[in-house]
C-alpha cells in the first residue's frame, strides 16, 4: 500500500465514529424552538420577496372559510419559523465594528457536532420535508431531535469531509408532530488553497 | 385533503393530466429581493446579503438562500393549484449551483404523476430551479393533495360548497391552461 493510499484511508477512518453513530439523536430529543410564534405580519413579510399571492396566508376570513383558525404559514416556512432567535436580552451579539464582522454566535452552523474530525467548511446540500398539517398563526413550532441518518466520507473539489443526512421532527408547543425535515449537509476541511475561504458555518 | 375541507377555489384532481406544465415563475435575484428574503426567512448568513463576504468564501457573488429557493417552489405550485390544494411533501431539493444576485431564477415544473389514496387526490410535480448556468436546484418533487370533482360538477369535499364557486374554478383552470407556459 502506498503512502498516498495510507493517507486516503486515514482521513476516511477519522469519520468512522460518526458512521458508527448513525441512528443516534445528537440532540437527545431536545427541541430547538423558533424565535417567535407564527404571526400574520411575519407571514406577510415572508410572502413579499416571493410575490406569493395566496389568501390562505393573508386573509383570516379566507383561512377560516377553509377550516383554519387563522391564516396559515406557507409550508416552506418550517425552516424560517424553527430558526431560534438571533439575540437574547443580556447577550452581546456584535463585538466588532469591522465591516464584515460576524455575530458572536449564529443559529445556523455546525458547531454542535461532537464526533468526528473538526471541520471548518459547511454547507447544506439537499432537503426533504413532509408537511403533516398546516401550521396556523398563533402557533409556535420547533425542531425536535437531530438524528443522523447517513454519513458518507468523500473528497470533493472543496475539501475532504463527509456528506451527512439529519432528521428532525417539527413540533408545536403541544408536542404535536406537524412535519418532518431531513437535511443533507457537507462538513469538510477545505483544501489548503481554500483554507482561507472556509465556510463560515453556512447551512443554507 | 380531508372530507371536512370546505370548497375553495383552485385546481381539482380530475383537471390534472400527467405532463401538464405549470406556468414558469421568474424571479430576478436583485440585491433588494435577497435582502428582503434574508430578513423575512431569518437566514442572515452573510453569503446571502454581502457580496464582499460571499466572494471571500469562493463564490462569485452573494446568492439566494435555501429558504427562498424552496419557497420559490411553493410559489410555483401555489400559483398553479390555487387555494384548494395542500402541499404535503418536498423531495429532491438538491443544491447544484449558486443562484447569484444579478441572475434570474426560473422555476420550471410539470405534473409527473397522479394517484388516488382512498378519496385523496395526490399529484406529484416534478420541479427545478434554473438560472443562466442551467439547473441550479433539483430536479425534485413537490407532492400535493387536491380536492376531487364529483360527476355533478361539485367537489367531493363540499361541506360548504356551492356549485357556482366550482364552476368559477373550472373556468379559471381553463384560463390557466392557456397562459404562457414554457417548455421545461
Describe the structure.
The complex is a heterodimer of chains A (204) and B (184). Chain A is built from 5 helices and 5 strands, in the order H-H-E-H-H-H-E-E-E-E. Chain A has helices spanning 3-13, 16-20, 40-47, 60-65, 77-80; strands at residues 31-33, 121-131, 141-155, 159-172, 177-190. Chain A is α+β, with helices and mostly antiparallel strands. Chain A is globular and about 65 Å long. Residues 1-5 and 194-204 of chain A have low confidence and may be disordered. Helix content of chain A is 17%, strand content 28%. A 5-stranded antiparallel beta sheet of chain A has the order 1-3-4-5-2, with no helix packed on it. With 184 residues, chain B is an alpha+beta fold. Chain B is 26% helix and 28% strand. Chain B has helices spanning 31-41, 51-56, 66-81, 163-177; strands at residues 25-28, 86-94, 104-117, 120-131, 134-146. Chain B has a 5-stranded antiparallel beta sheet with strand order 1-3-4-5-2. Chain B is elongated. Chain B starts with 24 loop residues before the first strand and ends in a 7-residue tail after the last helix. In chain B, 45% of the residues are buried. Residues 157-184 of chain B have low confidence and may be disordered. The chains are: A alpha+beta (204), B alpha+beta (184). At the A-B interface, helix 3, helix 5 and strand 2 of A face helix 1, helix 2, helix 3 and strand 2 of B. Strand 2 (121-131) of chain A pairs antiparallel with strand 2 (86-94) of chain B, so a sheet runs across the interface.
Amino acid at each position: 500500500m502506498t503512502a498516498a493510499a495510507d493517507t486516503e484511508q486515514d482521513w476516511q477512518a477519522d469519520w468512522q465514529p460518526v458512521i458508527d453513530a448513525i441512528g443516534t439523536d445528537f440532540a437527545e430529543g431536545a427541541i430547538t424552538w423558533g424565535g417567535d410564534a407564527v404571526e400574520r405580519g411575519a407571514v406577510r413579510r415572508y410572502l413579499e420577496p416571493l410575490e406569493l399571492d395566496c389568501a390562505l396566508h393573508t386573509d383570516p376570513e379566507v383561512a377560516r372559510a377553509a377550516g383554519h383558525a387563522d391564516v396559515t404559514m406557507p409550508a416552506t416556512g418550517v425552516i424560517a419559523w424553527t430558526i431560534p432567535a438571533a439575540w437574547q436580552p443580556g447577550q452581546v451579539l456584535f463585538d466588532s465594528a469591522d465591516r464584515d464582522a460576524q455575530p458572536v454566535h449564529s443559529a445556523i452552523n455546525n458547531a454542535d457536532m461532537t464526533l468526528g474530525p473538526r471541520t471548518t467548511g459547511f454547507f447544506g446540500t439537499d432537503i426533504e420535508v413532509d408537511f403533516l398539517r398546516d401550521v396556523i398563526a398563533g402557533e409556535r413550532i420547533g425542531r425536535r431531535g437531530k438524528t443522523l441518518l447517513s454519513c458518507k466520507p468523500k473528497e470533493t473539489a472543496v475539501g475532504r469531509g463527509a456528506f451527512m443526512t439529519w432528521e428532525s421532527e417539527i413540533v408545536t408547543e403541544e408536542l404535536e408532530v406537524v412535519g418532518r425535515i431531513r437535511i443533507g449537509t457537507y462538513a469538510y476541511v477545505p483544501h489548503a488553497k481554500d483554507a482561507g475561504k472556509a465556510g463560515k458555518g453556512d447551512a443554507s | 385533503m380531508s372530507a371536512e375541507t370546505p370548497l375553495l377555489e383552485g385546481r381539482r384532481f380530475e383537471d390534472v393530466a400527467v405532463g401538464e406544465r405549470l406556468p414558469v415563475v421568474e424571479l430576478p435575484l436583485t440585491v433588494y429581493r435577497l435582502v428582503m428574503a434574508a430578513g423575512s426567512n431569518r437566514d442572515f448568513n452573510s453569503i446571502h446579503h454581502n457580496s464582499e463576504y460571499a466572494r471571500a468564501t469562493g463564490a462569485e457573488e452573494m446568492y439566494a438562500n435555501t429558504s427562498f429557493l424552496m419557497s420559490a417552489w411553493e410559489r410555483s405550485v401555489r400559483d398553479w393549484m390555487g387555494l384548494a390544494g395542500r402541499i404535503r411533501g418536498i423531495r429532491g431539493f438538491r443544491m447544484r449551483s449558486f443562484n447569484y444576485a444579478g441572475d434570474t431564477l426560473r422555476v420550471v415544473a410539470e405534473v409527473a404523476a397522479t394517484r388516488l389514496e382512498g378519496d385523496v387526490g395526490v399529484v406529484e410535480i416534478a420541479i427545478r430551479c434554473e438560472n443562466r448556468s442551467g439547473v441550479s436546484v433539483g430536479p425534485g418533487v413537490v407532492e400535493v393533495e387536491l380536492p376531487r370533482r364529483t360527476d355533478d360538477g361539485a367537489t367531493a369535499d363540499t361541506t360548504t360548497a356551492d356549485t357556482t364557486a366550482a364552476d368559477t374554478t373550472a373556468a379559471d383552470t381553463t384560463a390557466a391552461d392557456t397562459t404562457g407556459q414554457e417548455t421545461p
